[in-house]
Amino acid sequence: MKNKKHKYLMPFALAAGLIAILILITGLYHKQTPTQDSQIATAYRTASDDLKQAILSEISQDAYNILKNNQCAVFLSYSNGNYLPTVRHAVGKNISNAWDDIDNQIEQAIQDSEFQVKYLKCDIVSETNETSFEQLREEIANNYSGRCHYGIAFDKKFDIALLEQECNHYRIFDKSTNNVLLSKTNAYLAAQTGQELESMPSNITTFKCESWLYEIESGEITKLSSQDANYGIRDFELNKNNLATIIATSGYYLRNNIDEYGKFVYAFWPQDRDSATNYSTVRHIDALLALEQYYELTSDSLTQDAIRRGIEFLFDYILKFDNASYVRCTDEDESPDEIRMGGAGLLLTVLSEYERLFGDNRYQDLLNSIANGIIKQTQPNGHTTHVLNLDLTTKRDYWTEYYDGEIIIGLCNAYNITGNQDYLDTAMRITEYCLNNNYATTGDHWFVNATNELTKILPNEVKYYHAGLLAVARQAETINQSTEDPTKLEQLMGAFEIYNRAIENHIAIPDEFDITLVLSQIQTQSESLLNNYMFPEKAMYSPCISDIIGAFYTEEYDGWKIRIDMIQHHLSGYYKLYCNYELIQKLCT
Question: Are 232 and 163 in contact (CB under 8 A)?
């Protein structure tokens, strides 16, 4: 089924009592007049009929009669966009029979509410597998995030069954024990349907579905993917317009989640509506980089002020010693009483980009002072002390290879703004140290993009081209082993830009570097990362759908998490893909 149109909204376990309260709130239990009741029920029935007819125009009534007694199972999830969705399911002799049963349930549920259905999702069970509870536990154990890739029916009749999204998003799995929690399962069941399991059965049925989403306000009906790689989300062509949508919505999330003092909502767990109380200043700077890229694409008029507030929030974390300044770093896990030179490098890039984008040099004194601090901590051989105590004594001589790349990029950007040769010379010296000490063999995204920046400034220096290209080539066989790490796309896009510049400047490409493989990996990574994007069909299982549509998230042992640096890495990788879209298409044809 083809989409009627592509339209995306701007951003956009628990104890039994909490889940029950959240879902009961969904009903907005305010009694309405009979006329209003009738209007609400009629609006729902119209939407339901529209979705059913659209589906049945593509498949037959008995296309998925795969259950016992030649029956089918249908799930309908509905949400008004502000609260947890309500999910109902039924088994019937065909799709319409099961659907009508669910309609009756839903209409009864909304008769006493002012609930206006905004999203309606249909899941039809298309594949089942009878398995043991122990096998399910093994699958959970093999997933870092403790998630299951199937829905679960707790009996053969499908009397009690949960969609994959319900299982994962309400965290009925406990990663610490690789178990399904009976208490959380029953709390969720009680809130949704009033059902309860006496105990976890020894045998269960896992299932997958064919799914459709109806966004009622826009009139868009979307067939969701049933393929493993993007199961449960829409088929989304990564053309230039859609890339722009991804960048715009995720950037909007950042811009919309920075307060009047310039502080971001650092991390957010939408299932609990819970925000982190700790903070990382380094990741704060990461997020400002993403906001600058967002502005460059959208020219959003409110973004300059948001970036300015974010920069000035950091003033309380700047330590000045004569003509040199440093960034005091707080972190969610580490002691705040230290100076991290990687943060200084990132801040140089933010300040340089601010001046380039807005023609405003108000922060140039700070930029020069931060650059001087880096130079003072760089030895003649290019080694930079990574972490300092607040009195500038060494705390950690080496912390992470990321810092060197971040520092080189920052110095290159500062050189572009100021023309100060000391900044470029220091960047080159640090790069030489990295090359002499085999830092590049791991080819992290910051180092590859650092060599990319150097080739822009020094287009005839072959060693910088080769350093970045070989760093990626030597990881060629392992990059696609991880398809949920956004830094891989950043790394690959840095290598692509180096390659393209090498061709333009008639620089020989190392034999180890395979551009065909890199283009294939860019496609794989960019498509796989869509699983981390909050499409409506994912966000609707959150109690705050309108707040999170268009953001990027990670799915970890403690549930969905939207964190500012993860948005930055996704946005930056897609932004580079957007900027190079025509060149990539030309090479791929």
Answer: no
Contact yes or no for 364/427 (Cβ under 8 A): no
**Mean pLDDT of all residues in 523-552:** 93
Q: Is the pLDDT of residue 85 over 60?
A: yes
Give the phi and the psi of residue 301 in degrees, each rounded to 5: -65, -25
In order, the DSSP letters of 443-510 are --HHHHHHHHHHHHH-TT-HHHHHHHHHHHHTTTTTGGG-SS-HHHHHHHHHHHHHHHHHHHTTPPPP
Predicted TM-score of the model (pTM): 0.89
- Residue 585: CB atoms within 10 A of its CB come to 11
Quote the CA–CA distance of 288 and 572 in Å, as a whole number: 11
How does strand 72-79 pair with strand 86-92? antiparallel
> Per-domain residue ranges for the chain?
16-230, 278-435
Q: Residue 521 corresponds to which tokens in the numbers above?
A: 């990996």
Which of 392, 304, 376 is closest to 340 using CA atoms?
A: 392
274: left (phi over 0), alpha (psi -120 to 50) or beta: beta
Q: Which residues pair with 75 in a beta bridge?
A: 89, 123
Domain 278-435, CATH: 1.50.10.10
Computed over every residue of the chain, the mean pLDDT equals 88
State the Cα–Cα distance between residues 354 and 308, nearest whole angstrom.
8
The strand pairing partners of 485, in sequence order, are: none
